[in-house]
Amino acid sequence: MAHLSLISQEHLQNEAAAYKWVEQHIWPHGAQCPHCFEKERVSKMKGNATRFGLYKCYACRKQFRVTVGTIFASSHVPLYLWLQAFYLIAGSKKGISANQLHRTLGVTLKTAWFMGHRIREAMRTGSLVPPMGGEGQTVEVDETIFGRASTHPKGRADGKGFRNSQHKNVIVSLVQRDGGVRSFHVAGSTVGEVIPLVNQNIRKETFIMTDSAMLYKKQLGHFAGHDRVDHSIAEYVRYEPTKTVHTNTVEGYFSLFKRGMRGTYQHCKEKHLHRYLAEFDFRYNNRVRLGVSDEERAAKMIKGAQGKRLTYRTTDRA
Question: Least enclosed by CB within 10 Å: which of 233, 235, 278, 306?
């Protein structure tokens, strides 16, 4: 029997199958009214003139589909094309551009761009996630710069440019070894911006690894331990009897992020940076090395689409 590709699956080619597949992931215990949250007095509507996946709630008397209250709401793009976009983004290690989605899916460039942002919104985890690390775990912390901050002009009147990297966007990432990543777009590499993120997002039983930046020297909370490598003297890894001291894991993540942003997306406004960080974080946290396949990654993204409504106006101007 010939092997079928992931993209040839029925729910990626057929609208009725697409609705059924999304319902299975968003409503694993049966349909639920998004208006009054009724589960029992809900019935699927039938008939030749009935739209795909239409239900009626006999508690509030309203009709609904599984797309209500999700990133798919009010979209004129067929649901199976949405799922194809999910699979393409889920399986592309360094992302897939709006131009490529436009050519592959046969939608307009404007639609492809907006679909990409909606899908990135589904990949955002929010602020209610538990802290990283734990007893016996190591988390690496580092900052990097990317792009140009919109709060700074393109140049100075005296023609001397900016000092250091004050005109750049600053990104802080926390990477757990053999685990996940959590990234933040911050105003600058300062104690007031970086240290609270570290203290709030990492358990106190965790061992911390950083570089020799002064902001980490005395300001970190009371963790299980803290080691630093000094890049200024060409020290990138230090082997000790009980541990290996380095920040290569977080720097590897930055390398992956920048290759994707520069090679695939090429340009990103500061107001959209948090969504691109969410995309790369999500794929890293659900990578093959952690036992998550491309199909499982797409299914997790679908679950994240619930309760997130993103309008074009918000995406364009926020």
Answer: 233
